[in-house]
Specification:
- Two copies of one chain form a homodimer.
- With 187 residues, chain A is α+β, with helices and mostly antiparallel strands.
- Chain A contains nine helices and six strands.
- In chain A, strands 1, 2, 3, 4, 5 and 6 form a six-stranded antiparallel beta sheet that branches.
- In chain A, helix 4 packs across helix 5.
- Chains A and B meet through helix 3 and helix 5 of A and helix 3 and helix 5 of B.
- Chains A, B: Pfam families: cNMP_binding.
Chain lengths: 187, 187
Amino acid sequence: MTDFLQRHIGEHIDLNDEEFHTVSKFFNSVKIRKRQFLIQENQSVDTMYLVKTGLLKSSLIDEIGKEHILQFANENWWISDFASFFKGEKSTVAVEVIEDAELFSITINDLEQLCKVMPKMEHFFRVKSNFGYVALQKRILSLMSHTAKERYDEFCLMYPNIFSRVPKRLIANYLGVTRETLSRLQM
Amino acid sequence: MTDFLQRHIGEHIDLNDEEFHTVSKFFNSVKIRKRQFLIQENQSVDTMYLVKTGLLKSSLIDEIGKEHILQFANENWWISDFASFFKGEKSTVAVEVIEDAELFSITINDLEQLCKVMPKMEHFFRVKSNFGYVALQKRILSLMSHTAKERYDEFCLMYPNIFSRVPKRLIANYLGVTRETLSRLQM
């Protein structure tokens, strides 16, 4: 099980077995079933999660009951309410399990402690955050400047693995289009 | 001039004068006039900028010539094409000066070197990246779930200082509405 974590971290930094042993003690394993909520709205969230297997989504329900999906997370993705996790705010998104999942979790206190005792891990998390930032900028530019059809094609191209596993209504809620529009785009 | 940089970094980490002296050698000062471009599209961008004074924007021009503004940056904001800076891709946004600006610049190589020689700075940049990530997630949720009127009100509330300094057509290009819609929202 820890093989996965070592490989995931090893994509950006080199850790020998002794260092990894230290790192692994900061993480816990979590198993969670389909349709369970990992995070609900209006909570204080002190944990973020790395997906080993399974699929989750974070989303916001607006005042008229419409769901807006901020993120899907499958293998090797991190998920949480990051505004709550990093800034201590109340959560605004809910995180729900779409496929039974095995996760690694780390609390904000353990994250900060880990970065202190092992500067390499601070580097790892900085790189992950930078790459996440870049991905979100692209999503914003896409939301602003691309048509629904272009966003649909991008999604299929970038996330074929998620596309094939997720109900179409959820893809519509991610792209910000109605289910009917999505059907039209698929033709 | 370095007082500003020391204060900016001091918001997240403690640096003594000797440490700050080391840090400051990794930065350069840049002055640039209104209407100049700091970054153009389709370049390799190896520098990011911290705004000491002035105001800039990063934006994308789509195929029909419409501008979409990704970011405004005034005092204490960082700006670049971050996909190019962090991931070595070709730039997709242009960065233009709206008000004469004084900036601090750092190259990607110097950033990585600085983080190596001073782990505290790796912490500083991780925190900045995390906070930036959270801000972008909020912008995505806002683009997806809020009306133009709500986005306009949020912008006035969150960035009163930018609102008062920027031509209204640029605010429309940031909010993703037409100039006519913006006029209606202001009534």
